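User:
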Amino acid sequence: MENGIIKIAEEKEHQEILDILNQAINERRFTALLTPVTLENRQRWFEEHDDLKHPIFIYKEGDRTLGWMAISVYRDGREGFQNTCEISYYIDKDHRGKGIASKLLDKVMDYSKDVGINNLMAVVFADNTYSKKLLKSNGFTEWGRFPNIVEIDNITKDCLQFGRCLNE
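Assistant: Predicted structure:
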């Protein structure tokens, strides 16, 4: 794998972010989103990530985005959670298992500490061994289980909530 760069996404990269997300939607294994997304119906989501505390980081090699990780507000409107955020991430299906998610997570954890985020959380399907391995190897622990909460194509699955306190 060539040396890539990690940077905050710009508007011109939004479609590449959605292309990767749509891969995951079509695979039916990594997200509870079931309908492909467009720039139009994700515009508000991009606007919510257009500030310095909640950006979307992308991993690029050359001019191609190969993965992304978003830092999102947790429980918007509840001030007590202002320094806790949720992360979500997706990697291009042809580039998984190459360390891109680990690099993005390292960057996001460092960045989060710098902007005053104390806790990061991620919600993953219980059968998503890739994400569980990634999170556990980076100091995240299982904080909760939501049994039978997701239904995809008549299959019900559990979700796990992982978290990490960044100032320990």
